[in-house]
Design a protein that fits this description.
Elements: H1 25-31, H2 36-53, E1 60-65, H3 72-88, E2 93-98, H4 125-141, E3 146-149, H5 156-159, E4 165-168, H6 176-184, E5 189-192, H7 200-209, E6 214-218, E7 224-228, E8 235-239, H8 250-262, E9 269-272, H9 285-297, E10 303-309, H10 339-367
Parallel strand pairs: 1-2, 1-10, 2-3, 3-4, 4-5, 5-8, 8-9, 9-10
Antiparallel strand pairs: 6-7
Helix pairs in contact: 2-4, 3-4, 6-7, 9-10
The chain binds erythose-4-phosphate (E4P) and phosphoenolpyruvate (PEP).
Pfam families: DAHP_synth_1
Function: Stereospecific condensation of phosphoenolpyruvate (PEP) and D-erythrose-4-phosphate (E4P) giving rise to 3-deoxy-D-arabino-heptulosonate-7-phosphate (DAHP).
Catalytic activity: D-erythrose 4-phosphate + phosphoenolpyruvate + H2O = 7-phospho-2-dehydro-3-deoxy-D-arabino-heptonate + phosphate
């Protein structure tokens, strides 16, 4: 629908095709209300992540799931499997499901389930937002906390109460809008280093997000408003590698830690095993994770967690014109580890960390 938008300037709306109304955040929340179970999952998920960042919980955070969520049915099947695995490895790993509905593109491409749920350029954003909130409720009701990327600055009004962790992506870490938004979010926010591999933009972002801001946004009724924030004390760094080289190695991690400390920030780092850290070769994510485990075994105190891109099927696929040709459970954006490789890798990580934990207990008993 194109609203009548008068302007004194001739041709002012020449590049605007239409303005479609959206239900307000309050309306969507009323249509898809919180359940007690979902509320408990979010509270427990956020607490566990804060405890890890504060050093009170020694478990490694693992943010794991598809590069993008395009099919809620396959997503739910993945979540059920992850939920079972989460229980099995809970002594050493805190699993959080990666549920990304908004994709920042290098230039063009499908921008995610919220933007285009039909994957056919029909851009039914109101339907996409409804699907996204429904899916987040379903996952939280399984008892699995959720991590997502916050890309659109209005989306959090609809969805953020269902998220336990949020990323600001490599392409938006330098954006003031995203830093301001993060300063008011209730959950820990991980800022990724830039696509060029530089960490200073993320350090600046963490500093900015930890401060109060006042900026334009929408209130829960969807009305334009001035949002005044208190600052987010749980913003932290995500190392995702750069266009020419990874940055998960111990030297890069130490240098990033020094940059955080120099800025007076907590030395908390999450390693994204995908993207620039694996040269976008999904099969290399295991190599990165094993290196991180080795760093932890050698006493690294700054790595709080890892991120893995994983789905039911290995690899990825282009979005076909005939959507009935889509392969079930296979990523339509970056390539992912398949479920069996994911499960094996996380069990291996659990066994490695458990062995380290038991060895430490043994040393303590001997020296007591
Ligand atoms: O994680 C996903 C992609 O790396 C990101 O959205 C950029 O994708 P593109 O370079 O294919 O646009
Ligand atoms: C887009 C993503 O990552 P990055 O911002 O690191 O490119 C992502 O994690 O989906």
């Amino acid at each position: 629908m194109k609203r009548d938008l008068p302007s004194a300037v001739e041709g002012h709306h020449a590049h605007l095709a239409a303005i479609d109304p959206m239900p307000s955040p309050v309306e969507l929340r009323a249509a898809l209300p919180f359940s007690d179970m979902a509320a408990r999952t979010v509270a427990a998920g956020r607490r566990a992540i804060r405890d890890r960042l504060d050093g009170r919980d020694p478990r490694l955070l693992v943010i794991v799931g598809p590069c993008s969520l395009h099919d809620p049915v396959a997503g739910l099947e993945y979540a059920r499997r992850l939920r079972r695995l989460a229980d099995e490895v809970s002594e050493t790993l805190c699993l959080v499901m990666r549920v990304y509905f908004e994709k920042p593109r290098t230039s063009t491409g499908w921008k995610g389930l919220i933007n285009d749920p039909g994957m056919d350029d029909s851009f039914r954003i109101a339907d996409g937002m409804h699907l996204a909130r429904r899916f987040l409720l379903d996952i939280n009701e399984l008892g699995l906390p959720v991590a997502s990327e916050a890309l659109d600055p209005i989306s959090p009004q609809y969805l953020a109460e269902l998220l336990s962790w949020v990323a600001i992506g490599a392409r938006t870490t330098e954006s003031q809008t995203h830093r301001e938004m993060s300063s008011g979010l209730a959950m820990p926010v991980g800022f990724k280093n830039g696509t060029d591999g530089g960490t200073q933009t993320a350090v600046n972002a963490i500093l900015s997000a930890s401060h109060p801001h006042a900026f334009l946004g929408v209130d829960p009724s969807g009305r334009a408003a001035v949002l005044r924030t208190r600052g987010n004390p749980y913003s932290h760094l995500v190392l995702r590698g750069g266009s020419d080289r990874p940055n998960y190695d111990s030297v890069s991690v130490a240098l990033a830690g020094k940059a955080l400390q120099k800025a007076g920030l907590a030395n908390n780092i999450i390693i994204d095993c995908s993207h620039g850290n694996s040269y976008k070769n999904h099969a290399l994510q295991g190599t990165v994770l094993r290196d991180v485990l080795q760093q932890l075994g050698h006493g690294n105190q700054s790595i709080a967690g890892v991120m893995l891109e994983s789905f039911l099927e290995d690899g990825n696929q282009a979005i076909p014109t005939d959507l009935s040709q889509l392969r079930y459970g296979c990523s339509v954006t970056d390539a992912c580890l398949g479920w069996s490789a994911t499960e094996a890798l996380l069990r291996e990580a659990h066994a490695t960390l458990l062995a380290g934990k038991n060895a430490e207990k043994g040393r303590q008993t001997l020296s007591a």
